[in-house]
Amino acid sequence: MKRTMLAALGLATGFALPAAAEDIKVGLLLPFSGVYAALGNDIEAGFNLAIEQFGSETKATFEIVREDTEVKPPVALGKAKKLILQDNVDLIAGIVSSGVLGAVRDMVHGAGVPLIVANAGNDEATGADCSPYITRMSFSNSQINRPMGTWMHEQGIGKVFTLAPDYAAGRQMIDAFTASFIAAGGEVVGQEFTPFQKTQDFGPYLAQAKASGADAVYVFYAGGEAISFVKQYDSFGLKADLPLYGSGFLTSALYVNAEGPAAEGVITALHYVPTIDTDANRVFAEAFTAATGRVPSEYAVQGYDAARALIEATKTGASDRETLANALRQVSFEGPRGTLSIDPATNNVVQPIYVYETVAGENGLTQKVLAQLPAETDPANGCVMPPIAN
Amino acid sequence: MAHDLGFWTLQALNALQLSMLLFLLSIGLTVIFGLMHFVNLAHGSLYALGAYFAASLAAVGGYWVGFFLAPVAVAGVGVLLYSGLIKRMRKSGPMAQVLVTFGLIFVMLDLTRIFWGDLALGIEVPALLEGRLAFLGIEYPTYRLFIITLGLAIFAVLAFVLRSTQIGAMIRAGVDNDAMAACLGINVERLFFTVFCVGCALAGLAGAVAAPLLSVTPDMGLQILIPTLIVIVIGGLGSLKGAIAGSLIYGFVQTFGAVLAPQLASVLIYALLASVLVIKPVGLFPAKG
């Protein structure tokens, strides 16, 4: 009798277990080598931190399979196939490069696997190429730059010179800025696009900016190019007469210390700054610094919020590919960046944009928030959101 | 666009500065090739190593420690490379050499990533060379003037050594006909070794000099490799004159191309390279006529 009771109990718990705790298999598709390895590492650290902090809020448990994209679209596509077909993941998160996103887009859309984009900002991903399975928790290129055009004109800047690397993201960022700057009544007196990753010496372009008669310079550069650019801008002594503005990747917390004093006084706009004065951000920043020894960058927060969105989605009971995709489109929560929600028309994140100045602080450079620009949804950009098919 | 004289002076200095940086790199590569008939594609990686050594040393002892010790450290790496790899590869033909040194690029790339991490480093310009100098109605960053001066000084020293000293005569003899030079009692192998180390040290110096100007990233060696190869192909293999001429042409075409025809900026130099290869395949000033 006792034995049958035990057996029945065992059987009951055996059946009850999967219903009580859903195990969700997550494919983390990030560059851990190649030019964006530092970004991939920050996103992963943020992702793991959120699972650690908020994992107990949901009944679901997460099993993470990490794959390295090497920032190469064909490699990433192979890894995405492996995650979907072999590992049979319920969801993929990550993707740093827009090129990689373009390569895996049809694969995840066709297979009906939800994808949380944790960086890649190309406008098309939540525009003409939008998919109900692709939810972006990071930013879109125009989202960051559009408010800056209006804001800079409000500050009394009438004429700008723009510079950016000559590739899709560079052009999208600058085009969004110039469109809103001109709409506000400003004038663009010169524009140059420098050969992407082939320009080490910005001297020739800086001399042109100086001769253009502009009131300010607006640029987009990231990573190594950003460091070279900011240092060279300062070495020519342009900062005093020709203030430097840009999209906030220019002085990202990830590498601003490599720029040193040259970055002081540069004013940029971004969706996250480590010094945002809210409790949610303080908790996040302290935990991230404790875990990694670094100040959290926008990449770290993107990873953090990607995991957070996943946790929020599972709280609604979503557990398989289809229900997760549906739930992700409806998540909304208060995070380090402020209140985040998903625009149902495009699946892009809706978030405030912060204008900040890089200033000298106690421990190296820090960010002074000058303005918080209200959250805006992107125009649909040709996105016709198909319903989730099954 | 109307620009005054100051604008063009500024651009000429920009061009000169870029030329001198490339000269420091290409001279080592071209003489190693001329003398040893050895294509060292990993030369750019040595430049990146120089920048990393300089950044690490500067963090400990200030800029000048990095400036003087980074070339020595890179020459040390050169010694290891020479005795471990290049000596064995001397007789194995250009294709094998290209493949081995090409592979070496990626080995070095990942080694720098393992030791120094993926984050870009930066070092500050030393206090002595901070700020700008005003002359000819323009203001130009002192550090860039320092690069120009350093490049010209190294050119002068190398020109003197190659033309007027015994070791210079031995190197010229070795470049011209190494078998004959060996018959005349010159220890060509030892000469090779010395020249290789000096070439490596110059690449390290270029890295140390470039570090405060650019960002120090693992792939900086790959980025500089193509321009360096273009310089020595245009200038002609194995000669000092070719290296300086090629560097100047590259620097000026690149800088003024960016100003006058920005849409063509990245194509211009390759078009020039192609035309040099068609019209004068050996380059403008080859060591051997």
CA radius of gyration of chain A: 22 Å
Which runs of chain A of at least 5 residues are low in confidence (pLDDT < 50)?
A: 9-20
Total strand segments of chain B: 2
SS strand fraction of chain A: 15-25%
Count of alpha/pi helices of chain A: 12
Helix and strand run of chain A? HEHEHEHEEHEHEHEHEHEHHHEEEEE
Distinct helical segment count of chain B: 11
Largest interface, with counts of residues having CB < 8 Å to the other chain, equals: A-B, 38 and 45 residues
Assembly type of the chains comes to heterodimer
Question: Based on the structure given, which CATH architecture of the largest domain in chain A is correct?
Answer: 3-Layer(aba) Sandwich
The residue-averaged pLDDT of chain A reads 89
Structural class of chain B: mainly alpha
Calculate the terminal CA-CA distance of chain B, rounded to whole Å.
44 Å
Using the 3D structure, state the CATH architecture of chain B.
Answer: Orthogonal Bundle
Radius of gyration of chain B: 19 Å
Q: What is the domain total for the residues of chain A?
A: 2
Write down the CATH topology of the largest domain in chain A.
Rossmann fold
Envelope shape of chain A: globular
Number of strands of chain A: 15
> Strand arrangement, largest sheet of chain A?
7-6-8-9-10-14-15
**Element-level helix/strand string of chain B:** HHHHEEHHHHHHH
Secondary-structure map with pairings?
The complex is a heterodimer of chains A (390) and B (289).
Chain A: H1 2-20, E1 23-30, H2 37-54, E2 61-68, H3 73-86, E3 91-94, H4 98-111, E4 115-117, E5 134-136, H5 141-154, E6 159-165, H6 168-183, E7 187-194, H7 203-211, E8 216-219, H8 223-235, E9 244-247, H9 256-259, E10 267-270, H10 279-292, H11 298-315, H12 321-328, E11 332-335, E12 338-342, E13 349-350, E14 353-361, E15 364-373
Parallel strand pairs in A: 1-2, 1-3, 3-4, 4-5, 6-7, 6-8, 8-9, 9-10
Antiparallel strand pairs in A: 10-14, 11-12, 12-13, 14-15
Helix pairs in contact in A: 2-11, 3-4, 5-6, 11-12
Chain B: H1 5-36, H2 43-61, H3 63-89, H4 93-116, E1 132-135, E2 138-141, H5 142-164, H6 166-176, H7 178-183, H8 188-210, H9 220-235, H10 240-260, H11 265-279
Antiparallel strand pairs in B: 1-2
